[in-house]
Amino acid sequence: MGAIGTILLLFITILFPPAGVAIVAGAGADLLINIALTILGYFPGHVHAFYIEYVYYTRREELRDGRIPVERAPGVYSEHIQSGGQSYGTIARST
């Protein structure tokens, strides 16, 4: 996603947090957690959605810079988010 895609994603997340999580994480535990948080209160759903997107973009930037994240981000269950969108391929880890 480029800059326009990121801005569009943020706008979608502001309007409806589960939609933003679904776009980034897909259907999984993170989406179910976000739906539950949004039902419990609109603000907790936003906090969780923006946290998921922050982890995704931070991990993606780290991989682009050649740094491989070693530790898992707490509270994120999607491997796609944990790997910055690189979970469908092989990432060579340095030893």
In short:
With 95 residues, this protein is mostly helical.
Please write the string of helix (H) and strand (E) elements.
HHHHH
Given the C-alpha coordinates, what overall shape results? globular
The computed structural class is mainly alpha
Distance between the termini: 30 Å
Biggest sheet details = none
How many helix segments? 5
Layout of SSEs?
Layout: H1 3-15, H2 17-25, H3 29-40, H4 42-64, H5 79-82
Helix pairs in contact: 1-2, 2-3, 2-4, 3-4
What does this structure look like?
With 95 residues, the protein is mainly α. It is 64% helix and 0% strand. It has five helices and no strands. Helix 1 packs across helix 2. The longest helix is centred in the middle third of the chain and has 23 residues, at 42-64. It starts with a helix and ends in a 13-residue tail after the last helix. The mean pLDDT is 85.
What brief labels describe this structure?
95 residues; mainly alpha; globular
